[in-house]
Amino acid sequence: MHAQGDGEASLQNAAARAGVDPARLVFARWAPTSEEHVRRSGLAAISLDTPLYNSMTTACDVLWAGARPARPRRPRRRGSLAAAGRAAGGSL
Questions:
Q1: Phi-psi region of 19 (alpha: psi -120 to 50; beta: other; left: phi over 0)
Q2: Residue 82 above 60 pLDDT?
Q3: How does 16-53 read in b/e, with b if 16+ C-beta sit within 10 Å?
Q4: Which residue in 4, 25, 74, 76 has its CB near the most CB atoms, within 10 A?
Q5: Are the CB atoms for 69 and 47 separated by under 8 Å?
Q6: Better pLDDT: 37 or 90
Q7: Distance (Å) of CA 19 to CA 12, 13, 23, 50, 64
Q8: What domain range includes position 19?
Q9: CB atoms within 10 A of CB 87
Q10: What pTM did the predictor assign?
């Protein structure tokens, strides 16, 4: 999903600092249909969840499409679907 404000630049800078080519990050705009959203999600290796919004439906869509949801670890959000999917799938 498209990052608001300076979010895209911040993520690209963080990727570069971690040795990841920022060009590998793809910021998608709003999908016009749920079918397009799920199809597009299947093109990703990882889908980034945000720490402020617990992506219940989006994480399910991403898992259904075959990608892995990832999110920053936050103690107060340990019950999120992304964290549960990560633990169940043994990834990230």
A1: left
A2: no
A3: eeeeeeeeeeeeeeeeeeeeebbebbeebeebbbeeee
A4: 25
A5: yes
A6: 37
A7: 11, 10, 12, 22, 29
A8: 1-28
A9: 11
A10: 0.59
Q: 42 with 79, same domain?
A: yes
Amino acid at 46: I
Total domains in the chain come to 2
pLDDT tens-digit readout, 9-40: 888 999 999 999 999 988 888 889 988 988 88
Cα separation, 83 vs 73, in Å, equals: 8
**Exposed, middle or buried by CB within 10 Å (0-12, 13-18, 19+), for 68?**
middle
Average pLDDT (53-68) is: 78
Residue 75 and residue 44 in one domain = yes
